[in-house]
UniProtKB/TrEMBL annotation:
Residues 11-276 form the TauD/TfdA-like domain. It holds the Pfam family TauD. Its cofactor is Fe(2+). Gene3D superfamilies: Clavaminate synthase-like. Keywords: Dioxygenase, Iron, Metal-binding, Oxidoreductase. One of its GO terms (molecular function) is dioxygenase activity. The lineage of its organism: Bacteria, Bacillati, Actinomycetota, Actinomycetes, Micrococcales. The keyword Iron applies. Belongs to the TfdA dioxygenase family. This is TauD/TfdA family dioxygenase. It comes from the Bacteria. Transmembrane segments: none annotated. InterPro entries: AtsK-like, TauD-like_sf, TauD/TfdA-like.
């Protein structure tokens, strides 16, 4: 008879740089600590994990699974949660599609360490989620550009609605934008972030860094440099394309990835529910922490001490 201690998860790689999947692991169960530790190890290695036939069918089950990796954030700093579930954010095609490359909630001081997405309504075609490795991008940089990026800091803000580009607006877009920006946030983050568990360096930029600037540079210089660095993140070899099916959950490391949801499913409904795990304050290569410039996000997320998410594996969360 196989015991929990003998359980060895087998993830199948989806790409050489990012992504792995497993089928039939019942995430609705009270997973043994050893299994959670293996999932954490796989997340550190692959950065994005796809759980097919995951057997998570309710928000409560998703919340319980996500909480095994640390304390949870609220659903969002400004956007309402699912009714009766303060940790669950609806990612609904009725509100627009997130078809801009971004890392979740980087406009606050301590963005989530990890995000879970659960399929609720899946279109018959299209609707994938693209996830990119910012560590792979950093490694691709020429040495001179890598050394330059190590010194840079960028200001991230929520002062625009990345989910509804003006050329794709639909009914309710303006009201959603008002809600999204009802509290303004600005935070200075290192352009190169050091992952607190693996020590890897990754480019920490994305959509929320595109609307302002790199500290010390002009807007024009900032746009050019951010566009150059962003192009490395979205190289095909750094991207895994995750297709959605019913009864599926995706877990990705928000500290060292970006993601994008292409609007390629016409008018079909698409709904995922998101639960995010609270994170630490980012640090650059010199160990300097990010600094909040505008907006207090303490109501949204507690600050997690580096390494405490490892300890949380043993709590039974």
């Amino acid at each position: 008879m196989t015991t929990a201690l003998e359980t060895q998860l087998e993830f199948t790689k989806l790409g050489s740089r990012i992504g792995a999947e497993i089928r039939g692991l019942d995430l609705s169960q009270d997973l043994p600590d050893e299994v959670v530790a293996q999932i954490r190890h796989a997340l550190n290695q692959h950065k994005a994990l796809v759980f097919r036939e995951a057997n998570i069918r309710t928000d409560e089950e998703q919340v319980r699974f996500a909480s095994r990796f640390g304390p949870l954030t609220k659903a969002h700093p400004t956007v309402a949660s699912v009714d009766g579930a303060e940790n669950v954010l609806p990612v609904d095609s009725e509100d627009g599609s997130a078809n801009t490359w971004h890392t979740d909630v980087t406009f606050v001081l301590n963005p989530p360490q990890a995000s879970t997405l659960r399929s609720v309504i899946v279109p018959a075609y299209g609707g994938e989620t693209l996830i990119a490795s910012s560590a792979g991008a950093y490694q691709d940089l020429p040495t001179e550009l890598r050394n330059f990026a190590d010194t840079l800091w960028a200001i991230h803000t929520n002062d625009y609605d990345y989910a509804v580009p003006k050329n794709l607006e639909h009914a309710g877009a303006e009201e959603r934008r008002k809600v999204f920006t009802r509290v303004k946030y600005q935070t200075a983050h290192p352009v190169v972030r050091v992952h607190p568990l693996t020590g890897e360096r990754g480019l920490f930029i994305g959509g929320f860094a595109q609307r302002l600037r790199i500290v010390g540079l002009s807007n024009t210089e900032s746009r050019d440099i951010l566009r150059l660095l962003q192009a490395y993140i979205t190289r095909p070899e750094n991207v895994v394309r995750v297709s959605w099916e019913p009864n599926q959950l995706v877990l990705f490391d928000n500290r060292i990835t970006q993601h994008y949801a292409p609007s390629n499913y016409d008018d079909q409904p698409r709904k995922l529910n998101r639960v995010t795990v609270a994170g630490d304050i980012p640090r650059g290569v010199e160990g300097t922490q990010s600094q909040a410039i505008e907006g207090d996000s303490s109501h949204y997320s507690q600050i997690v001490a580096v390494g405490s998410e490892v300890a949380s594996v043993g709590t039974g969360g």
